[in-house]
Amino acid sequence: MTRALAVAVFTLVLATPPPGQAPSERPPARTSLAGQLLVATDSLRDPRFHHTVVYLLHHDDAGAMGVVVNRPLGNASLAEILNELGADSTGVSATKSVLININYVQGGGGSPCTLKTTDPSVTICSPAANSTVSSPVHIVAGSTNTAGVTNMKIYIDGVSKYSIASNKIDTSLALPNGTHRLTVQSSDKLGRFVNETRYFTVGTTTSCTVKTTDPSITICSPAAGATVKSPVHLVAKTTNSSGIVALAVYVDNVLALKTTSNQIDTNLTMAVGTRFIVVQSWDNAGRIIKEPRTITVSP
Question: For position 259, which CATH number holds?
Fold first, then answer.
């Protein structure tokens, strides 16, 4: 949706029978809760639904759709609200304003990555700190806040570039080459502002032929046995149909970098001498994959 004060919906996809299961084995149809209010209990800590009242617009075996009705955002005409919901606004006043008491909630999909447990806090999932990426830059972040997040913003080099009324961000921004300071800031219903900052570089990334073995890790740079200078430009990519949980770089058996991305493009400071590098991934199937490489760092 394009308007921050418009009604946004959440969707929940309910469990479906595994492939090949006969229709007769399907669970009995659920009683529809459409038209009813769901009140969150104190034990529900998800910031999207904490202390909310949800009006269900639709509910069946395929899923549910509803709106949170107790988080004020501002004022808009009733016609605007109906139009955003895809409803017929013919004959409805476009000038008379009503209080919008519905908050943006995007359900399903869970958190964009493993978020910090500190409450409140902001976690930048991508790009990785000190990484080298190409433009447009994919920026992913989420927030931990039981009070309820009202807005999240992206600042590049201190300038506001993106804003959304949600508790998570997943967008791409066109940025010029060079090193940039990324700050993601959240604001909550208590009037608090929380942010996280990291640096990254926009430039030409190293390309390589990724292994087709599933699962596997391909170290694109540096080459095996290469002699390089510090900081070492390290690029690694994964092939994994199960999905990556985390990806890490170890230098001489010491953790140097860890990310939730499925690839790494970063510069690492290393001491002069022979260095043993291991790129390791963890996937959703519980597997651990490793790719070693030995290089020499020259003075």
Answer: 2.60.40.10
Q: Are residues 226 and 282 in the same domain?
A: yes
What is the average pLDDT across 39-51? 67
- At residue 203, the pLDDT reads 77
Q: Could you tell me what percent of the chain has a pLDDT over 90? A: 40
Asked whether residue 153 carries a pLDDT value surpassing 90, the answer given is yes
Residue 2 placed within a domain: no
Q: What's the CA gap between 112 and 267, in Å, rounded?
A: 24
What is the rounded average pLDDT of the residues 114-142? Answer: 89
Quote the CA–CA distance of 153 and 294 in Å, as a whole number.
41
Identify the bridge partners of residue 202 per DSSP, sorted by sequence position: 133, 178
Residues 6+ apart with CB under 8 A from 36: 55, 56
β 273-283/288-298 pair status = antiparallel
How far CA 248 is from CA of 71, 86, 221, in Å, comes to 40, 45, 15
Total structural domains in the chain? 3
Give the residue numbers spanning the domain of 291.
216-298
The pLDDT value recorded for residue 49 is: 67
Contact call for residues 245 and 125 (beta carbons, < 8 A): no
pLDDT tops 70 at residue 108: no
- Put simply, whether the predicted model's pTM sits higher than 0.85 gets the answer no
Q: What is the pLDDT of residues 71-80, one digit of tens each?
A: 655 555 666 6
218 φ/ψ angles, rounded to the nearest 5 degrees? -115, 120
- Which of these, 95, 69, 65, 101, lies nearest to 80 by C-alpha position? 95
